Amino acid sequence: MIRNLPVWVRERLGKLLRPRASSAVQALEPALREHPPRPNGVILIIEVEGWTCGALPIQIELTGYEVRVVRGGVAVESLRLMRPILLIVGGATSLTFYRSLRRASPAPILALVPEADEEWVLDAFSSGVDDCQVGPIGSGEIVARVRAILRRLGRGPSIAASTSSSL
Q1: 70, 66, 50, 49: which is closest to 58 by C-alpha?
Q2: For a 10 Å CB count at each end of the chain, is N or C smaller?
Q3: CA-CA-CA-CA torsion for 46, 48, 50, 53, nearest 10 degrees?
Q4: 47 pLDDT exceeds 80?
Q5: Peptide bond before residue 30 is cis, with ω within 30 degrees of 0
Q6: Model confidence over 66-77: pLDDT tens digits?
Q7: CATH architecture assignment, domain 37-166
Q8: In what order do the strands lie in the sheet with 109-113?
């Protein structure tokens, strides 16, 4: 059953779901058959301050994008190698970190922060963040935000296309 999945899915499942792989794989298989991966660019997820992305990469990959996950310390170097079309920064980090990401890449930045007041969020926007969500936030909403950002950039399906396919 798992052998029929694409290599990238098997590798991701092996890393993320090792203890409960069989039930998780069975739950994902129908979605993978209906929505095969169509890499349209790389989305880079940057994990900082103990935040982990969980199954979010798989959910985003199902929308047709390749996803790479890095820890905060190697993010700037990774930008030069991968040239992502979107950055998702999860966890609490400094405004200086967002500034360094912005200097290194023109890609939009989606910041997912566990807690912040309005002043910090406004400073984050001034530091180069394009969208900021203060937690908690569900993975479905994150995927919707990713699709909306990429649609505004002309890198995702139009609203009409995504609505007609679900009818």
Answers
A1: 66
A2: C
A3: -20
A4: yes
A5: no
A6: 888 888 778 888
A7: 3-Layer(aba) Sandwich (3.40)
A8: 66-71, 42-47, 86-90, 109-113, 131-134
Residue 160 neighbours by CB distance under 10 Å:
8
Q: CA–CA separation, 155 vs 58, rounded Å?
A: 19
Residue 14 has pLDDT above 60, yes or no: no
Taking the CA atoms of residue 74, residue 91, residue 110 and residue 59 in that order, the dihedral angle to the nearest 10 degrees is 90
* Separation of alpha carbons 149 and 133, rounded Å: 13
Q: Among residues of the chain, what percentage have pLDDT more than 70?
A: 69
The predicted model gives 24-45 an average pLDDT of 60
Length of the chain: 167
Are the beta carbons of 68 and 45 closer than 8 angstroms?
Answer: yes
**Structure confidence at residue 10 as a pLDDT band (50, 70, 90):** low
Asked if residue 25 lies in contact with residue 1, where contact means CB atoms within 8 angstroms, the answer is: yes
For residue 20 the two structure tokens come to: 């409960």
